[in-house]
Design brief:
366 residues; Methane Monooxygenase Hydroxylase, Chain G, domain 1; 2 domains; three-stranded antiparallel β-sheet
Length: 366
């Protein structure tokens, strides 16, 4: 894929990243599975390097909740306080599971109270936080970087009994054969990976430094909406499961109807007050929003994606998505965070190059 390789190489030359891992498949057949550049200075980046996914892992949480939804353990319009009673304090009693999944809940920037906080302390802190002023859940929209995914993970824990990280491994990653994918990797496993464990670098000034966005690398509590790790190949295979209506390799994770529900439009035409742009949303998935400005929409999927494209991206670093009209799955992860403006240019260029390499730059046929 010459245009894709050229885009990655140009980014290395510009100091945006040390390297990028790219996985692309069409109708389940891989057409690219490569690592380009370095995982860290002096260590080549390969297709087997475990990259930092950041928020590209958020849709995994949506699928975890959907498995419980299919079992009748919850309903999308259940108040969160039905499962976590203490969450209903300070105006948050009307916040539902659907509001969490569509980023319309109204408690966007509640973070861990301190770096060494335990899981229970984080959940208690979020539960005690007030709703944002004049926020009516469902009537306003704004991306919640971390807070709502802690709550979704706690819903999973309380309804199932297993910690969220274990539930994801047991119910999603391992059944699909994604043995090197993690959300919350045990420290012992991290050490065992050695040079296969990728790093994330702050490249805002062109000189790579360990990024504070990689919480686990700093020894902090894992973030269920941001601590995903694994090869881009495995994140792509996870999307292939969604492309084929919830099953892959003979293993069914979701029913076709649930996949349709997750990737349908649940939030339409609303200004996202965090991103300051209109963005449409499914349940945990960012939907193609090019109609609101293909050159301005943040964390989109490039100029050529079809209107049915769904996925998610990670802060200044990664993107994974499925374009069903072309049978296309893309997952790529860069190990440099160059600042949001430069990242958006990089992401649009890389996504466009992938489509151009595949001959998908024209609209899909009937």
């Amino acid at each position: 894929m010459p245009r894709t390789t050229a885009a990655v190489t140009a980014g290395i030359g510009a100091g945006l990243h040390l390297g990028v891992q790219v996985y692309v498949s069409v109708r389940g057949e891989p057409v690219a599975d490569v690592g380009l550049g370095q995982a860290r200075p002096g260590v080549p980046l390969t297709a087997d390097t475990l990259m930092v996914w950041m928020s590209s892992c958020k849709p995994v949480g949506a699928v975890a909740v959907a498995r419980l939804w299919e079992r009748g353990a919850l309903a999308l319009d259940d108040p969160v306080s039905r499962v976590i009673p203490e969450f209903g304090r300070n105006g948050k009693d009307a916040v539902t599971v659907r509001h969490l999944l569509t980023h319309t809940g109204g408690f966007r920037f509640v973070e861990s109270p301190r770096r060494d906080a335990t899981w229970d302390e984080v959940i208690a802190h979020i539960g005690a936080a007030p709703l944002e002023p004049r926020w009516v859940p469902g009537r306003r929209a704004g991306y919640h970087p971390s807070s709502s995914w802690y709550v979704l993970a706690e819903i999973v824990r309380r309804l199932d009994g297993r910690p969220y990280a274990q539930f994801v491994r047991d119910e999603i990653f391992e059944p699909l054969g994604l043995h090197d994918s993690w959300i919350g990797m045990p420290p012992g496993r991290a050490r065992a990976y050695g040079d296969r464990l990728g790093a994330l670098y702050d490249t805002t000034d062109g000189e790579p430094r360990p990024s504070p966005l990689d919480a686990e690398a700093l020894g902090w509590l894992y973030r269920p909406g941001g601590s995903g790790r694994g090869p881009a190949r495995e994140l792509g295979r996870w999307y292939e499961m969604l492309l084929t209506a919830g099953a892959r390799g003979g293993v069914r994770i979701l029913t076709p109807q649930t996949v349709e529900a997750l990737t349908a439009h649940h939030r339409v035409g609303m200004v996202d007050e965090t991103f300051r742009h209109v963005i449409d949303w499914g349940l945990g998935f960012i939907l193609d929003s090019n109609r609101y400005g293909a050159d301005t929409v943040p964390y989109g999927y490039g100029p050529y994606c079809s209107a049915r494209t769904f996925g998610h991206s990670g802060a200044e670093s990664s993107t994974a998505f499925c374009d069903p009209e072309r049978g296309l799955v893309v997952a790529w992860a860069a190990n440099g965070t160059p600042g949001d403006a430069r990242h958006q240019v990089r992401a649009r260029a890389l996504n466009a190059a992938i489509y151009e390499d595949l001959g998908f730059a024209a609209p899909p046929g009937p």
